[in-house]
Every structure is written in structure tokens, then in C-alpha cells.
Amino acid sequence: MAQRQDSVTEAYLGRTQRSQALYKHALELMPGGTTRSTTFYTPNPAYIAKGEGCYVVDIDGNRLIDFLNNYTSLILGHAHPKVVEAVTAQVQLGSAFAAPTEREVRLAELIGARVKSVEQIRFANSGTEATMFAMRLARAHTGRPKIAKFEGGYHGTHDYALVSTSPSLDAAGADDRPEVVLDSPGVPPATAAQVVVLPFNDRDATAAIVRAHKDELAGIIVEPVMGAGGIIAPRDDFLGFLRQITRDHGMLLIFDEVISLRLAPGGAQELYGVTPDLTTMGKIIGGGFPVAAFGGRADVMAFTDARRSGALAVPHGGTFNGNPVGTAAGIATLELLTPDVYARLNQLGELVRQRLNDLFARRREKAQAIGVGSLFNIHFTAGEIRNYRDVARSDRARMKRFHLALLNHGVMLAPRGMGAISTPMREAEIEALVAAVDEALTDTRP
């Protein structure tokens, strides 16, 4: 195994010599050499020079099929002409103002017309901000202090979100009664007392935990399709169950659709027929720019109304909230995303999973491709995947080697095996992915 690992690393180092040099310089300037934890991997990340359609080229000249799409946000691929045109036109008029613009109103209209739960909306700059404010609104509306979230669910990097996103199973407690595990130094220990952790796709355990905290819980936040946790779909109307139990106990249901909004015009809530009280969004609504949002019931969103004051007001500022350049890109993107486009993306996603699983079966690999719609994730396990712990028990060491091997064969996925389809992709790119996976399996064979 060590010899194969060395050969994969050696091949990668041979392909990325300019990136190595730049990374060494970056280490002098930034801790760990990057300014975004998710773009770091060893021995060094490849530095991208340009992107076009579904391809990127790094500074060493390596051309890669981009199945990562900036972690699913570039649903139209790189530098789509309509997005470039919209952004260029706005930049020529000005990039930011201490005032609202027509573009934020138009983007709000587009989202509200598509996403059933969004009666009113506010814009932010990142999914982290969106989920932070959604949780705050839940606490303001109910007067209760605690938020429940699911083990393995990722909702950004604020204190209440950095809880049990990827805990060690040694510290995580029983499967049906997860312990609260803080993910980062610097998160106050008191945060643990205000967050309740639930097991995804487990009705009985979730119901028992929620009932035990029902008088303190302001709401439950959930990715309707668990994203960073492994692209895990809800089972057996689990989302409908969450809708009912939150109503029964006077809590708010928050859908984090930062990733899953790409699954249908109205997001995963349209796909599964469940309407939450609040929805957080990001990624595709900014067309490749840092735009995020939170929206939902008008009576809940009213806490952010600037006409309010005192105890009834939730302040919500942000220098670049509703930025005209980002909203211009978001408008251009959403206007291009017709129902037919979503259907084609989802069909290609199904083809990816089918072709990869056929390959794994033919090679007798303990691996599988799971996902929903245009989202997919490769996992090195033969067991059923229902929640975070099933993913945590997979062969993650091989996944790291496999990611590097795929880069050697011209394909970019997330280091955890996640990928997404963009509109420039055709069946040819799917076949190229399958061929690269075949080669990478050989390169990383135990």
C-alpha cells in the first residue's frame, strides 16, 4: 500500500511543480498556505489559473474536468457568457453602494417565485451568515435558547454550527443518542449547552431527543439532503416527520438548502414536498459570486425589519449584502435555470451514479456512488449509508489517495469524494470521469 501511495504522490508532484513553488511561498504569508480550509490538501493544492465551461487549467498547464464546481456553486460552469455579460455591465456602473439597488429586488423576486417557503428574504454573503441569522430568528421568534442540528450536518463556521460536523466516533456517543462535540478550539464550551445533536434518518431516536428538550428548542436545522456529510438522502419521509414534530412542539423547521437548492427550481423542499419555516441559501443563487440568503415566513422574517427597534429587532447589516455585482450574476444564472435544465442535470447525475456503481461491481470494489439529482459522492464502503456514522466508518484513508489519483488522471472532485454536474457537461465528460475512476482505483488498490 505504501508503495502505491508513494507512486500516486510522486506522479502528482511531477505534475504540479509550479504549484509547489507557489505553495511554499504562500506558507510564508498564510497559515497552512491557503485562506480557505476546504481548498487545502496534501502534499500541496494545485493553483488554478483559469476556468472555462466544465474545465479548469492549473498554473502548471494541467487541464482538469471540474466536477467540484467550487463546491457545487458553479451550476453553469466557469465564465458562462451570460453571467460574464451581466457582471461586466454592472461593474461598469459601479461595484457597491451604501444603498439598495434594483438588482437585489429582482433576485428576491426570482427566489420567492421558485422557493415555496420564502415569503420574504434577506441577503447575506455566505452560507455561514445565512444559517447564523436563521438560527437567531428561530430563537427570537420562539423565545427559546436551543437549536437542534444533525450529526454530520454542515451549516458553516459560526459557533452554533461548529458542533458535531465530523466528530470522532470515539467521542460521539451512542448511535441513537449522539454526544455534542465541539469542532474547533475557540468555540465557547457554553455553546455545547445550547445545541442538541440528532441522528439523521432515525425517527425514533430523533423523536425521543426532541421530546426531552421540547421546552427549550427554538428549532431544528437540517440539510434536506446532507451535503458535506456525504450527499445522503432522507429516507422514509424523514423530512415530513421533522415537519410534523416541529409543529407539534412549537419549533421552527429550518432547511439549509445552500447545496440542495440545485436539485429543482424550488430546491429539495419542492423535490420532497415539505415546506419549512425558514430556508437558507447560497452557492447557485450568486452565479459564482458570494451571495447567500435566508428567507421564510413573513412573521418570522419581520424581526429583521429595519423599521423595528428595541427588543423586537434583530439587526442585520453587512457591507456587501445584496451587492449589485453578485445579484446581477445570480439573476443571470437563475433566469437560465429552466425546469428542463434541472431535469437534464439530474439525469446526468443519475447516469454518473449508475456508471460508477456498475464499475465498482465489475471490479468487486467495496465502494459506491450515492447522491440525489445532480449531486453525487463516492464512498469506500459496501455498507448501507443512512447517516454520518456510516460514512465515518468507510475507508477515508483510501479516499484521500483516490482524490490525488483522480487529479493525476485529469478529474477534480472534493477530497471527500463529492461532485456535482454543471450545465456544460455532456455524456463525454461522464465517461471521462468513469475512465479516470477506473485508473485511480488501480492506482490506490490496497
Brief synopsis:
The chain has 446 residues and is α/β, with parallel strands linked by helices. Helices cover 39% and strands 15% of the residues.
Supply database-style keywords.
single chain, 446 residues, alpha/beta, Aspartate Aminotransferase, domain 1, Aspartate Aminotransferase, domain 2, seven-stranded mixed sheet, 15 helices, 39% helix, globular, disordered N terminus
Overview of the structural elements:
There is one protein chain. The protein is built from 15 helices and 16 strands. The relative contact order is 0.16. The chain has two domains: 2-75 and 339-443, Aspartate Aminotransferase, domain 1; 81-336, Type I PLP-dependent aspartate aminotransferase-like (Major domain) (Aspartate Aminotransferase, domain 2), CATH 3.40.640.10. With 446 residues, the protein is of the alpha/beta class. Helix 4 packs antiparallel against helix 11, helix 12 (339-363) packs parallel to helix 15 (427-443) and helix 14 packs across helix 15. The longest helix has 25 residues, at 339-363. The strands form four sheets. It has a seven-stranded mixed sheet with strand order 4-12-11-10-9-5-8, sandwiched between helices. Strands 1-2-3-15 form a four-stranded mixed sheet. Strands 13-14-16 form a three-stranded antiparallel sheet.
Our count of helices gives 15
Helix fraction by DSSP (H/I, runs of at least 4): 25-40%
Tally of structural domains: 2
Terminal-residue CA separation: 5 Å
**Low-confidence parts lasting 5 or more residues at pLDDT below 50?**
1-5
CATH class category label of the largest domain: Alpha Beta
Based on DSSP secondary structure assignment, what is the total number of beta strands? 16
The CATH topology annotation of the largest domain reads as Aspartate Aminotransferase, domain 2
